Amino acid sequence: MRGAIIHAPYDIRVEERPDPTIVEPTDAILRLSAACICGSDLWPYRGINEVRRPGPIGHEYCGIVDEVGPAVVSVKPGDFVVGGFFACDNDCPNCRAGFHNACQNFQSYDGCQAERLRVPMADGTLVATPEQPPAELIPSLLTLSDVMATGWHAATMANVQPGMTVAVVGDGAVGLCGVLAAHQKGAARIIAMSRHARRQELAREFGATDIVEERDQAGVDAIRALTDGVGADAVLECVGTGASMIQAIGSCRAGGMVGFVGAPHGVELPIREMFTRNVGVRGGMAPVRAYLPQLMDLVLRGVIQPGKVFDHLLPLEQAADGYAAMDERRAIKVLLTL
Ligand SMILES: [Zn+2]
């Protein structure tokens, strides 16, 4: 089969890889319907995160079950399935508490930007649609593997409630999905922080009521100005840098909560400011499996269309061009067709 391999920073090649096979009786083999490039794939792409090189890359997927091991009971060949960006048993104490990201049997995948994929613990990891979804829903279903679930997690961790004013730091695909999640959870006002026209437009389409273009202290001042000097009731931090976290905490009202989902790189929390204003910070890696059934239902009923974050479609063979487009921010998110 064909699959993307990272050889070095800025060097992605699509090459021949061995077809995956059933290794454990709990495995499933999928024929992927589509794959995509994540903002977090850019950390190894830029050489900031150490990864095995050369090595397969990609962690978001959806597709058709081709084969299952003898112990698999919840999915069968022919089912259309989505799984989170890691495999989990859905049964250990952490999974049962809704934090599948800390599954005691957590496993990562061997490269999802490929034609086929071995999914460990298929019963715990995969959720099947009731019937074959129409092709036009595949991009939205694919986002449930990571970005949409991660945006949803930010809004959940920030405790977004109906009627709230919510600020979203970050206009990448996750931030935009955070806007959609806040809207779905009933936020009355959603302030998206973005300085890119196309991203602002999509944010408005997803439910943003206001746009703030300023960053850092000027961005905080703009949020305060829009909220009678108070700050937002809840803030979604969807970037993961020190500056974005400071901006998120500064934009939050006294007693409010910042939900953070940007993988932290160089973040230090201003504990004195948090103490003085009772601002909370909660979040982390999204427990995708916990949200999959609910989000899948919203997509299948046409209530949400998170697939709109894909503004570039390329064949898998051109994955390298997709990485470059994401790296240069020419693309919000790239879908790789198979
Ligand atoms: Zn578990």
Please give a structural write-up.
The chain folds into 2 domains: 2-146 and 287-337, Quinone Oxidoreductase, Chain A, domain 1 (Alpha-Beta Complex), CATH 3.90.180.10; 151-283, NAD(P)-binding Rossmann-like Domain (Rossmann fold), CATH 3.40.50.720. The mean pLDDT is 97. The chain starts with a strand and ends with a strand. It is 30% helix and 25% strand. It has helices at 42-45, 93-96, 122-125, 138-143, 147-157, 173-184, 197-205, 216-226, 242-251, 271-277, 288-300, 319-327; strands spanning 2-8, 11-16, 28-37, 55-56, 61-68, 80-83, 116-119, 126-128, 165-169, 189-193, 210-212, 232-237, 252-260, 280-283, 312-315, 334-337. The strands form 3 sheets. Strands 3, 5, 6, 7, 8, 15 and 16 form a 7-stranded mixed sheet that branches. α5 crosses α6 and α8 runs parallel beside α9 (242-251). With 338 residues, it is an alpha/beta fold. β1 and β2 form a beta hairpin. Zinc ion binds next to α2.
Provide the CATH topology of the largest domain.
Quinone Oxidoreductase, Chain A, domain 1
The sequence of SSEs as H and E is: EEEHEEEHEHEHHEHEHEHEHEHEHEHE
Structural class: alpha/beta
Query: What is the typical, i.e. mean, pLDDT?
Result: 97
- First-last Cα distance: 11 Å
Q: What global shape is seen? A: globular
Task: Write out key terms for the chains shown.
Quinone Oxidoreductase, Chain A, domain 1; 16 strands; alpha/beta; binds zinc ion; 338 residues; seven-stranded mixed beta sheet; Rossmann fold
